[in-house]
Amino acid sequence: MTEDFQIRVLPQVAYNEANLKAYLAQEKGFDPETIYRVRVLKRSIDARHRDIYVNLKVRVYVNEFPQDDAYVKTEYQDVSNKPSVIVVGEGPGGLFASLKLIELGLRPVVLERGKNVRDRKLDMALITKTQEVDPESNYCFGEGGAGAYSDGKLYTRSKKRGPVDKILNVFCQHGASTSILADAHPHIGTDKLPRVIENMRNTILDCGGEVHFQTKMTSLILDGNKVVGVKAIDNRNAISVTREFFGPVILATGHSARDVYRYLADANIEMEAKGIAVGVRLEHPSHLIDQIQYHNKNGKGKYLPTAEYSFVTQAQGRGVYSFCMCPGGFVIPSATGPEQTVTNGMSPANRGTQWSNSGMVVQLNPEDVEGDDLLRIMHYQEKLEHDTWLQGNRKQTAPAQRMADFMNNRLSYDLPKASYAPGLISSPLHFWMPSFITKRLQEAFKTFGKQAHGFLTNEAVMIASETRTSSPVRILRNHENLMHIRLEGLFPCAEGAGYAGGIVSAGIDGERCAEMASAYLEQI
Predict the structure, then answer these.
(1) I want to staple 306 with a disulfide (CB 3.0 to 4.6 A). Which of 69, 218, 268, 351 is the partner?
(2) Cis previous bond, 465, omega within 30
(3) Backbone CA torsion sign across 329, 183, 71, 87
(4) Domain tally, the chain
(5) Residue ranges for the chain with pLDDT beneath 50
(6) So what's the pLDDT on residue 20?
(7) DSSP string covering 55-115, please?
């Protein structure tokens, strides 16, 4: 017999299986010896008040063990001899597009400019050692995309639970913990996600698809107003080779592929400037955030997870908000080329470091930047990243300032120990960063400090600059079939095309583009 229950319990019950069984036996009248298994289906923490509770939906197995997997399995077929679809980019949009194509009986041919997920890790380690960035293998470029080594957070505000659940189940099928199906803010972890990505790639290969690493698209192949393939440079060997790949194209290149945006602009392929958000990475000691969020001087205690936060307000007519919050994590260098410094955040699966960080960013709309250049938001990003690099002594060393010093327009004479491996240098962010950003951050921090006592503190450090929150352009496509508004056979996809904002939403958009590519092939 199985029964489902909605319960509200203390953390020591929610996060301890023996205690949870004992609670259910007492509250629901079961003999403890007959409860063979308790599966947590949904879990969320209610920390609004001093007493912390955890809301659970559980499935209790009485006198029987589960006969099914904890996740829904997708069947993938052999597509070795099926029509090909070119997938440019192997981030979450490209990966889920590829797997969906296989479901639909089509053969994905994946082109990834960077290296496989393991080899790119070596290049990322060199950023700290050499203070230089490989422009084709870094925290943004390579198998798995920007999310592979920047946390693997799977939270989305999408209300379409069906597609969200499908994405999470596919992750579980490829090795992610089934806890992501239960948690309100699911998270795989930077240390666990690479293996999951490898398994997804192996599914593509085992089913007859292709994955080409270090192969960068340079242009589309056109037949009139129809996209029939792409040209790409194969950089795997000492001598680069230009190759051509034919088929409809799902363009999922990610939000940092600026060469792609420049190519599209030069080729007069329709797109538009899109708003982003820019600011800093703000890092606190994790125990301080635990104390604030859990209303307890002892912090999270034995059972609760490392605390998260989410802040949003309006300042001088623009939104200011926390972005990509990483409890128990690290701040990482996310530049994709020379003479730029960019920050991002990540957390391991256990969220166990002594720091917690988040982007603190200000909404930037196209009308906030003068001119009508389609790439003006991208140029704004580039200038801010270059200015940050200059302030960081022309290295990946990041300029930083204590939070309270920033509020008082005061240089920090020393900086706290921080997680950013390339190192920090004290810098007056309030002076050299655009006032559009700094004045709004200062106003917002006053608000956040009132909402969470202790948040506005000199124990926190601001690390410049956070700029890669989303794509600075939107590649225009039709709403109905997701195809480019003029070019048949081109499907702008996911975050790089301006239609997603994170791993899950990119995965959903990848699946939708695959479905539309399949429908397109059926018509021609």
Answers:
(1) 351
(2) yes
(3) negative
(4) 3
(5) none
(6) 95
(7) EEEEEEEESS---S-SSPPPP----TTSPEEEEE--SHHHHHHHHHHHHTT-EEEEEESS-
